């Protein structure tokens, strides 16, 4: 089992939809990487019964969590509690790379 990851080795890009990959999944948490090119969006959605967070690794984005909208940049943490709609748009000029964690089995 892999225990150490350099997220940059897993970064990617897709023109039709933002890129995402699973870095690690255990019994209690899934850790992934989402990469959004400029103007790409992860539409607002919610996860019942699972909290989620985004940690901004590089770039900046416009986040929606419930009825709050705010920009966040490299080094910031955005938390979406279970059942609360959330989404993100890359409003910058560089790739937006996000470390994401959520309970397993939740899409």
A few lines on this structure:
The protein is mainly β.
Spans of 5+ residues with little confidence (pLDDT < 50)? none
Count of DSSP strands: 9
Query: Residue share in helices?
Result: under 10%
SSE ordering:
EEEEEEEEE
Percentage of residues in DSSP E strands: over 45%
* Main β sheet profile: 5 strands, antiparallel
Distance between the termini: 23 Å
- So how many helices? 0
Given helix and strand content, the structural type is mainly beta
Write structural notes for this entry.
There is one protein chain. By secondary structure, the protein is an all-beta fold. Helices cover 0% and strands 50% of the residues. A 5-stranded antiparallel β-sheet has the order 1-2-9-4-7, with no helix packed on it. The radius of gyration is 13 Å and the shape is globular. The two termini are 23 Å apart. The model has no long low-confidence stretch (mean pLDDT 94).
How are the SSEs placed, and which strands pair?
Blueprint (H helix, E strand, L loop, with lengths): L18 E7 L4 E7 L4 E5 L6 E7 L1 E6 L2 E6 L3 E4 L5 E4 L6 E7 L5
Which terms summarize this structure?
mainly beta, 4-stranded antiparallel β-sheet, 0% helix
